[in-house]
């Protein structure tokens, strides 16, 4: 059974928001959790599919942002706060 696109989107959002590796979708413990208490197991997409879906979502969001910025009146300023700690770790705020 094909999973709804919402499930894939939610799965990608979970991976991104919780900073998980794409490989989590292939971990036995994750699959057990996803399929817990289900009569019919869910076929979770593989890591390559998740990566592709994330790239597609990124491109879609990027295009939407470009359109919003094109319609913005005036100029847009971007400010980035970057620094390096004494032990050489870079931070971007």
TrEMBL record:
InterPro entries registered for this protein in UniProt: ZnF_BED_domain_contain (IPR052035)
Subcellular localization(s) per the UniProt record: Nucleus
A cellular-component GO term for this protein: nucleus
Keywords recorded for this protein, A-Z: Metal-binding, Nucleus, Zinc, Zinc-finger
Source organism phylogeny: Eukaryota, Metazoa, Ecdysozoa, Arthropoda, Hexapoda
Name of the protein in its database record: AC transposase
GO MF term list: zinc ion binding
Native organism: Allacma fusca
Main location: nucleus
């Amino acid at each position: 059974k094909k999973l709804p696109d919402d499930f894939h989107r939610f799965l990608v959002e979970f991976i991104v928001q919780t900073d998980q590796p794409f490989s989590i979708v292939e971990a036995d413990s994750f699959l057990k959790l996803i399929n817990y208490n289900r009569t019919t197991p869910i076929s979770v997409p593989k890591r390559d599919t998740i990566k592709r879906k994330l790239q597609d979502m990124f491109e879609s969001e990027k295009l939407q942002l470009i359109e919003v910025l094109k319609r913005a009146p005036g100029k847009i300023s971007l400010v980035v706060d970057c620094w390096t700690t004494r032990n050489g770790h870079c931070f971007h705020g």
